[in-house]
Amino acid sequence: MLDYQTAGESHGPAMLAIVTGLPAGLTLDTDSINSELRRRQGGYGRGGRQRIETDVVEFLAGTRQGHTIGSPLAMRIANKDSRMDDAARTPPVTRPRPGHADLAGSIKWLTTDCRETLERASARETAARVAAGSVARLLLRELGIEVFAFVRQIATARTDAGVTPESWRSLRTARDASETYCPDARVTEAQCAAIRQAKVDKDTVGGICEVHVFGCPPGLGSCMDWRLRLDARLAAAVVGIQAFKGVEFGLGFGCAERPGSKVHDPIAFDPSRVGDASLGFTRPSNNAGGLEGG
Asked: Quick check: 252 and 229 in contact, CB under 8 A?
């Protein structure tokens, strides 16, 4: 089974990712992985740390001559701002911050120095996750599966852009031209304004991102074992990212406002699509977010 683990602290020597379960022979497109790492560092209003680091992946194990060999793939992303053992530059933190792991971690591990928790809890860890996810994306592309994500909302500035199998590539181009990764230029301006105002107010704002998967074959996941349900595993992966507080699939919590007849996605059959991943089965709506029964 494909899995990954990360290691490293925010101001340690490096962030590490180990991906297991990869098949042998997968070409590792370093440029593609580094491009995703740069995307992680972008975005309007990004923190000062992003201007310090220049994230580049280094392969340590599991690869030969540019492709995987079936063993665990180990990757390293160096931290330029490495000062974990410099007591003068990284003094103890004794005042826990709300909204962070500081207090709970200090109680759990019986320490008066919040730094011993916050260094690992830091969102800097997502650099390793992006590297691991970028490798997974390379594998998905080999299987004809594409993933598209964008920022739907920041503060109250929200785009109503609809995503379809026909439109997602043009939306991706628009997203890549946006400072907030939103495929709507007008909404991008409003989102930037909200971020600027938050800076003036010495505050922060939240947001919503949306992910679409195309070419995914039916039957992934399971309805037999709750631990294998694809929606459960995806939800765990999402809320496991620092600062994420919720996840919806398809209509999500909007289902509470509708009767079942207005929620279920009718099943139709299109003979012209028998040869693709859908086997010819189609839906006129996607309220379930492509996930039924796990």
From this structure: no
User: In this structure, is residue 90 part of a structural domain?
Assistant: yes
Among 174, 125, 133, 124, smallest CA distance to 33 is for: 133
Q: What is the CATH number of the domain that holds 6?
A: 3.60.150.10
**Is 74 inside a domain boundary?**
yes
Question: What is the DSSP-derived secondary structure letter of residue 262?
Answer: G
Inter-residue contact 49 to 161 (CB < 8 Å): no
Q: At what angle do helices 30-41 and 126-142 cross, to 10 degrees?
A: 140
The two beta strands, 268-269 and 281-282, are antiparallel
| Tens digit of pLDDT at every position of the chain (294 positions) | 899 999 999 999 999 999 999 999 999 999 999 999 999 999 998 877 777 888 999 999 999 999 999 999 999 999 998 898 888 999 999 999 999 999 999 999 999 999 999 999 999 999 999 999 999 999 999 999 999 999 999 999 999 999 999 999 999 999 999 999 999 999 999 999 999 999 999 999 999 999 999 999 889 999 999 999 999 999 999 999 999 999 999 999 999 999 999 999 999 999 998 888 788 998 999 999 999 998
CA distance 216 to 74: 27
Question: What's the number of domains the chain is made of?
Answer: 1
Total residues belonging to the chain: 294
Q: Where do runs of H (alpha helix) occur along 11-114?
A: 30-41, 49-52, 102-108
Answer yes or no: pTM beyond 0.85.
yes
Cβ pair 70, 22 in contact under 8 A:
yes
